[in-house]
Amino acid sequence: MTDTTLQHPTLAQEAQNVSFALRELALATRRLVSALWATTTQRREPCPKETARQEADKLRAYADSLYRADPRYAQDLYAAATRHEMEAAAKA
Predict the structure, then answer these.
(1) Is the pTM of this model over 0.70?
(2) 3-class DSSP state for residue 60?
(3) For the chain, which has fewer Cβ within 10 Å, the N-terminal or C-terminal residue?
């Protein structure tokens, strides 16, 4: 018995095209993973933290804006700002 195999000339070209596309996909995936890894592992400078005084001043400014509408709540905010400052000074 003999077998005859017919090969399409375009079949080899299509296989090469798929192989090339897969290599390009692998390369792009490797670059993407490298970029993501570099982004997530790089160290960042910490943001300059506000001092307790600055935070308390912001809270007092907010209380000033609410004073006419709700003076009791504004007084509570003023007291909270003072407590915050005093606590920070005690820790220092």
Answers:
(1) no
(2) helix
(3) N
